[in-house]
UniProtKB/TrEMBL annotation:
This protein's name: DUF4037 domain-containing protein
Domain of life: Bacteria
Length: 166
């Protein structure tokens, strides 16, 4: 089975990974940034902005180029940013990863939220798992992607420690 320009296995794996990353981990990081900003924890805001920039760069590679397999964690940011040199969102990711010291925590949060909104637009509509009305819909979305991934014979995106030993 093939989708437009890419085989179904690669599409399902890449989109499933992107949906998972933008759904829970990135949403949690941005929410932590909001709390850190209100508490004056600028260091946490900077750290999370860098992690969100890296995550968005990886997600963009998954969605735009269907890149896989992903390199090991310590190589992922440079790998992802290198492939996005000509993409406008690549520069936004790069700015967050670089973490310029002259940017205020407020500016970092605003830049991070803009980037996440733009990347989420490419990934597709995702419910917010951190609000009551989005929790169950986000689980349903993850379940649907896992079912598709399994249907095409790929390994899912949940962390191994979340799975039962078979």
């Amino acid at each position: 089975m093939k989708t437009i320009d890419v085989d179904a296995r690669r599409y399902a794996w890449c989109r499933g990974q992107a949906t998972w990353w933008m759904g829970l981990p990135v949403a949690a990081l941005v929410e932590d940034m909001r709390g850190a900003l209100s508490e004056g924890q600028d260091g946490l805001v900077r750290r999370n902005a860098r992690v969100v920039g890296q995550s968005c760069a990886v997600v963009l590679n998954l969605v735009l180029f269907h890149e896989r397999p992903l390199p090991v964690q310590r190589m992922r940011a440079s790998w992802a940013l290198d492939r996005l040199t000509d993409h406008p969102l690549g520069e936004e990711c790069r700015l967050l990863v670089a973490g310029r010291r002259d940017d205020s925590a407020d500016e970092l949060l605003a830049r991070t939220e803009r980037l996440v909104k733009q990347v989420r637009a490419l990934v597709g509509d995702l419910p917010d798992p951190l609000v009551p009305e989005g929790y169950f819909p986000s689980l349903a979305t993850a379940r649907e992607w896992l079912q598709l991934i399994e249907a095409v014979g790929e390994e899912g995106f949940l962390p191994r420690e979340w799975k039962k030993d078979e």
